[in-house]
Each structure stands twice: as C-alpha cells, then as structure tokens.
Design goal:
By secondary structure, the protein is mostly helical. The chain contains 12 helices and no strands.
C-alpha cells in the first residue's frame, strides 16, 4: 500500500510524462499514461485495502476482511478523511458481534469522519440505535432510528428499521399499552 501523498506524486509524474509523450507526437502513449494515472487518482480516494475488505465482508468472511484492514498500519496518514470513516465503519461492523462498546466507538468515529453514501451512514446510525437501545438509552436510540430512516432513501434498510421499531415497542412493555392504569400485573391485582 502506498501512502496517499505517494499516490498523488506517482499520478502527477505519470501525467507529466503523458504530456511529454503528447509533445513528442506519441498520442497513443500519452492517452495510455493518462489512463494509468487515473488508477492512482482513483486509489487516492478509494483505498485498495478497504475495497478488498468490503469484498470479503460481502461474502461474510469477517476474518478475511479483518486481515485486509490490518494491512493499513497508520490510517491517519494513509487514508483521506472519508476513507478513515469507512475504516472505522468496517471495524464497527466486524466488532459489533462481540464487543458493543468498541463497536459504538468505531461507529461514532465513522459518523464524525463522514461516510460518502447515505446508505452507509444510515447503517451506522441503525447499528448505533441498536447499541443504545441495548444499553437502555431509549431516547437516543429513537433519535438515531429516525435519522437512519431519513437517510435510507432507497429503502434498503426498511426491514431492519421495522424490526428495530417492533423490538422497541415490545421492550416498552405493557405499561405503555394500559396508559394510566399501570401494568398488566397491577391491573390483575385490582381485579380488572
């Protein structure tokens, strides 16, 4: 993996050589070098290891995704800000199965750094809502769930959001269903 600055230096060097090829009359070579430089520009904005980790994650291979992410030694210097967000987002997804505290930290950092796609941001907020709900922070969970619903414009997370809302209603218990009368057990004691 090249550092992000090295990728830009390589891209500008190749573009400079492409311009030289154009001035010498080798138009085909110049076009080929311009296309080659676009690869390094693309890899500046989309880190190759994060792309490979996404591919592994798509196949549900968490160990493979973790292996690719671990190859990024210093994310602050190797990645642009949005890619640092995706780096934390992927770590949050992988850790969410085993350690909710770490997953919460990763998701919050990913949201603060920014994610380019609304769907990814909605997924991060949905995961944070689930974590907040499991830690009995219901207002925060409801707020995050509302934000995730607004961000999910394509409806890709509709089922998960519905399931989360149902779980929140179920966990609210019978107190909310009986209004001022109290819980079901209290009503049974009164003989109602």
């Amino acid at each position: 993996m090249y550092n992000k600055i090295i990728k830009l230096i390589i891209a500008t060097s190749i573009i400079a050589y492409a311009v030289y090829q154009f001035t010498e009359g080798y138009i085909g070579n110049g076009i080929m070098f311009i296309l080659l430089s676009l690869i390094f520009v693309f890899l500046y904005f989309k880190n190759e290891f994060i792309l490979l980790a996404f591919l592994r994650l798509r196949k549900q291979d968490f160990d493979g995704a973790k292996k690719w992410l671990n190859k990024i030694k210093n994310p602050e210097s190797a990645l642009v800000k949005k890619q640092q967000g995706y780096y934390n987002y992927l770590h949050g997804i992988m850790v969410s199965q085993s350690n909710m505290n770490d997953a919460e930290k990763y998701f919050k950092k990913a949201i603060s750094l920014g994610l380019s796609m609304d769907h990814d941001l909605a997924m991060a907020k949905l995961n944070l809502a689930g974590i907040a709900f499991s830690k009995r922070r219901k207002q925060e969970a409801q707020k995050l769930l509302t934000e995730a619903t607004k961000l999910d414009k394509q409806g890709m997370l509709t089922d998960q959001i519905k399931m989360m809302k149902q779980n929140m209603k179920r966990a609210a218990g019978p107190n909310q269903h009986f209004g001022a009368g109290g819980s079901l057990r209290a009503q049974k004691r009164r003989g109602k």
